[in-house]
Q: What sequence folds into this?
């Protein structure tokens, strides 16, 4: 039985409104979640007041649930998965 694409290597890019964007290879969807949420956590210092950052953090946590659900399903089909929610965007692409 073959390994799930979602459990293989992925290329991810993400952007955080008011902060910037980045990209990296990750091992699986769980690693993608850690990278996204960790990046939003580190972005806190970019904001003078907590409200915009708190909304971005909430968005990242909702996206994390989406990645582990519908994102994993789409990636298992060998297709790219993209989502954007209130200032946080992510693209996951299966890699060989």
A:
């Amino acid at each position: 039985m073959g390994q799930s694409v979602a459990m293989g290597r992925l290329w991810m890019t993400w952007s955080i409104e008011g902060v910037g964007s980045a990209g990296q290879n990750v091992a699986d969807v769980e690693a993608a979640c850690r990278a996204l949420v960790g990046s939003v956590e580190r972005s806190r210092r970019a904001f003078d007041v907590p409200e915009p950052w708190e909304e971005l953090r909430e968005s990242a946590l909702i996206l994390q649930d989406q990645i582990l659900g519908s994102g994993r399903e789409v990636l298992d089909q060998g297709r790219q998965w993209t989502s954007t929610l209130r200032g946080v965007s992510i693209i996951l692409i299966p890699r060989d």
